[in-house]
Amino acid sequence: MRTIVTAALCASILAGCASSPSEISAAYVSPIQYSGYDCDQIRSELVRVSSRVREVAGASLVFLPKYSPDLNPIEMAFSKLKALLRKAAERSTEALWNRIGLIIDGFTTDECANSFTAAGYGAK
Prior knowledge:
Layout: H1 2-19, H2 39-57, H3 73-88, H4 93-105, H5 109-118
């Protein structure tokens, strides 16, 4: 855990220097400072450092939804692909590959975007 915190601190320093060097000065952070921390203290320090990194870099934090095959856009696309392949009932390897190409060409950009939105990855 100490390595993770040290890496996060280094990343925050580097990210801050890369975006606005006049506002942030580089500093060495000794890992000894965090050696007595328990897991809760490390987590709160990580949140504090991450917040500062986002503030300096102008980034925003986006939480991903919990994993579920029902909410995974890739799983949705494969499910549709498999259903259409079963319906086509191709019996040779060459015909199967040709059918896959035709089916994939039928996946529209809007349909893919809607799958991501339905899975919780859409823009807010």
